[in-house]
Design brief:
By secondary structure, this protein is α/β, with parallel strands linked by helices. The protein has two domains: 59 residues, Signal recognition particle alu RNA binding heterodimer, srp9/1; 52 residues, 2-Layer Sandwich (Signal recognition particle alu RNA binding heterodimer, srp9/1), CATH 3.30.720.110. Helix content is 17%, strand content 35%. It contains two helices and eight strands; from the N terminus they run βαββββαβββ. A hairpin with a 5-residue loop joins β6 and β7. α1 runs antiparallel to α2. The chain is elongated. It comes from Kribbella lupini. InterPro entries: Glyas_Bleomycin-R_OHBP_Dase (IPR029068), PhnB-like (IPR028973). This is VOC family protein.
C-alpha cells in the first residue's frame, strides 16, 4: 500500500511542457509527460497539450502539472505558493537561484528576524515559490 502524499499540481496555459522541463532542470529527477492526444484525443485542438505530467526528484519532491484544455477557464492566482524548506543551505540556494532566474523576487533570500534565511519569488511561468532555510542550531 502506498503512503498518502501531498504535492503541488500546477495548471498552465499551454506552457506545461516548457515549465515542467524547467523544473526538471531546477530539481533534477525523472519527468513523465503525456499529451491529450496520447490519451485518445487525437483530433482535439488540445492534442499536443499536456494532459498530465509528473516530476519525481532525487530529494523526494513530486511536482505535477498540466495544460488547461480549451473551454476551461485559466486564471493565474496569487492564493497559493509552493514552499521549499529544510536545512541543506547549498541545495536550497541552488533551487532558489534557478527558480528566480527569469522571474521576479519579492523577498530576497536572506536572514530574517526569526533567524532563518527566507525568500519569495515568482518564476518565469508565474508560479509563486517560498524558500526557507532553517538556521543552524548552535
Amino acid at each position: 500500500m502506498m503512503a498518502s502524499r501531498l504535492n503541488p499540481y500546477i495548471a498552465f496555459d499551454g506552457q506545461a511542457r516548457e515549465a515542467m522541463e524547467f523544473y526538471q532542470q531546477v530539481f533534477g529527477g525523472d519527468l513523465a509527460i503525456n499529451t491529450f492526444g496520447e490519451f485518445g484525443a487525437t483530433d482535439s485542438p488540445d492534442a499536443d497539450k499536456i494532459m498530465h505530467s509528473q516530476l519525481e526528484t532525487p530529494s523526494g519532491y513530486t511536482v505535477m502539472g498540466s495544460d488547461v484544455p480549451q473551454g476551461m477557464e485559466y486564471t493565474r492566482g496569487t492564493n497559493v505558493s509552493v514552499s521549499l524548506s529544510g536545512d541543506d543551505s547549498d541545495e536550497l540556494h541552488g533551487y532558489w537561484d534557478k527558480l528566480a532566474d527569469g522571474g521576479s523576487v519579492s523577498v530576497p533570500l536572506e536572514k530574517q528576524m526569526w533567524g532563518d534565511e527566507f525568500g519569495m519569488c515568482v518564476d518565469r511561468f508565474g508560479i509563486a515559490w517560498m524558500v526557507n532555510i532553517t538556521a543552524a542550531q548552535g
